[in-house]
Amino acid sequence: MTIREFRESDRKVAEEIFALYWTDPEFLKELSDELGENARFFVAEDSNEIVGIVGFKKLPDYLKPFALTNNPVEFYVIAAKYKRRGIGEKLKLKLIEEVQKAGFTEILLFSPNTHNESWNFHDKLGFERVGEVTPPEDNISQVWRKVL
Prior knowledge:
seven-stranded mixed sheet, Aminopeptidase, single chain, alpha+beta, 148 residues, globular
């Protein structure tokens, strides 16, 4: 498996992978709009098939109270076409590596309480659950942090 920068030619497959996890049309449009815009994305390829995507972007204001350092970033999204194959873990490690290379000092993420099946995944790799937040246009969510 290789992980590389997102390319515009990956858009259709990335949108299909997003649709495996989220059904809200507004959020799916937001994800699509962020591809190549304000966020930085990477895709995982296995045998010339895109099997996952991960991205990070500028930290939104509602997560800033959870930051401990002065150069945090938001772990925006992660999605894999197949579960339990290590794709998500490899994407998350790539994101951590790229965030460090870019000079960020901390990663924050949130996951709505309605998506609690992903929480164990976030508890891995040194991310610490640090509180609750209600983002604009979303439900009560848990917040994780990893200081780099």
